[in-house]
Every structure is written in C-alpha cells, then in structure tokens.
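re: ur msg from earlier - yeah i can do the heme C complex, just paste it... oh wait u already did. ok heres what im feeding in:
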Amino acid sequence: MMRPITCANCHGPEGRGGRVTMMMARFDVPDITWGKLTQGEHREENSAKDEHEEHPPYTEETLKSAITRGINPAGEPLDDEMPHWSMSGQDLDDLVGFIKTLD
Ligand code: HEC
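and the outut:
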C-alpha cells in the first residue's frame, strides 16, 4: 500500500518519537514502542503540554483505535497532528505486529 507519509516520518524508524518539524509546524511526538505503550504509567516526556499525559495502557484493540480513529485508551481524542489511517484489518494487524517488535 502506498502512503504519502509513514509512521516513521513522525515517530521515527524505531518508534521513539521526538520533536518533528513538518510543513512549518513543530510538534512533539510520543514514543510508540510497545513496551512504552503498554506501560501503566505511560507519559509523553517530551511533551510540553500536560494534556493526554495519563491514560490506561494500550492493548491491541485500543492501539487500533488510536491508529484508525485517533482515540486513546482513555477515550480521548489525540491531537490533530496524529493522522487517522484507513487500512484493512490485515494491514492493521501487520502494523500492530510491527509495533510489538519495537522495544
Ligand atoms: C504527521 C505525524 C505523525 C504520523 C505520520 C504518525 N503519527 Fe502517531 N502521533 C503523532 C502525534 C503528534 C501524536 C500525539 C498525539 C497526542 O498526544 O494527542 C501521535 C500519537 C500516536 C499514538 C498514541 C500514543 C499515546 O501515547 O497515546 C500512537 C499509538 C501512534 N501515534 C501511532 C502511529 C502509527 C502506528 C502511525 C503510522 C500508521 C503514526 N502514529 C503516524 C504524529 C504522527
């Protein structure tokens, strides 16, 4: 599947996040390595903002909601910088499988 940009453009090749400058906008991107996502005390250390700091650990299902609907496990919308992705169940499974290899 062709995508104009990939997760790595923002979250980095190893999913570790950081600060991104894109189209004249700068924003902080969270670490999406599986270990971090599924930790109870997940924090966006790089984030200047306090919102979305705490939410329950991710599971496969809530990770899929974050990717396709931009909703975190607390049921809150993610910031607009995080795109919503339409992908088939198989692609989504593959992607979740890939994120699980990031640690
Ligand atoms: C254009 C930049 C960009 C791209 C591309 C992008 N993301 Fe994100 N992503 C973000 C930003 C910014 C946030 C933080 C949103 C927030 O805090 O509300 C985020 C948040 C997330 C979160 C939630 C993390 C958390 O702590 O709640 C997950 C999971 C995630 N991204 C996965 C992905 C995956 C998987 C892809 C590829 C399909 C992807 N992202 C592509 C910018 C991006």
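cool cool. The pocket of heme C is lined by residues 5, 7, 9-11, 27, 29-30, 32, 42, 52, 63, 66-67, 72, 78-79, 81-83, 85, 95 (CB under 6 Å). ping me if u need the other ligands too
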